[in-house]
Amino acid sequence: MEQVGPPLAHHLNAVIGWIELGALQEAEREFTLIPRQFRHHPDTSLAEWELAAAARDWRRAINAARTAIQLAPERSDGWIKLAFALHEVRLTQEAHETLTHIIGNFPTISIIPYNLACYAAQLGKLEEALSWINEAVKLGGIKEILKMARSDEDLRPLWPQLEKIKFE
């Protein structure tokens, strides 16, 4: 997929900027200004996901992520966002299956095993969750991953084990 240029880049940056400012109505308005010829671009779908997630409209987020995947299955972000939204609507098993299905396609992206650890922990699969954390640590670094994991509510069942791991 080629780099996004104007005018789409301007609209997408504005949508994300409004979201970051907490101005969801302005973000939504800006999103509607995206020209029709750019509506079927994965970056447009991912911006819609961000807008939906900020509004906690997880069904819309799921649809946006699925569209992004249809348009660019070779990109990891659509898959990651789909799994996240599925988890938010309590379809954690489906979220887990989504990432398990594609992890081999993205062997260097640490957030995938990290999120798999979260989903496994929430499904009561604690040994599997620890295994995924170890994989995420290999890819993302022990300090960064453990810092995140030790405060992630999805990984609360692992906190006692994670506290025992030392790093400098």
> Could you list the spans in which at least 5 consecutive residues all have pLDDT below 50?
none
* Rounded average pLDDT: 95
Residue share in β-strands: under 5%
Q: Overall 3D geometry? A: elongated
Helix content: 55-70%
Structural notes for this entry:
The protein is mostly helical. It is built from 10 helices and no strands. The protein folds into 2 domains: 75 residues; 79 residues, Serine Threonine Protein Phosphatase 5, Tetratricopeptide repeat, CATH 1.25.40. Helix content is 67%, strand content 0%. The longest helix is centred in the last third of the chain and has 15 residues. The mean pLDDT is 95.
List the keywords.
single chain; 168 residues; mainly alpha; Serine Threonine Protein Phosphatase 5, Tetratricopeptide repeat; 10 helices; 67% helix; elongated
What can be said about this structure in brief?
The chain has 10 helices and no strands. The chain has helices spanning 8-20, 24-32, 42-54, 58-71, 76-88, 92-102, 111-122, 126-140, 142-149, 159-163. By secondary structure, the chain is mainly alpha-helical.
Give the SSE map:
Layout: H1 8-20, H2 24-32, H3 42-54, H4 58-71, H5 76-88, H6 92-102, H7 111-122, H8 126-140, H9 142-149, H10 159-163
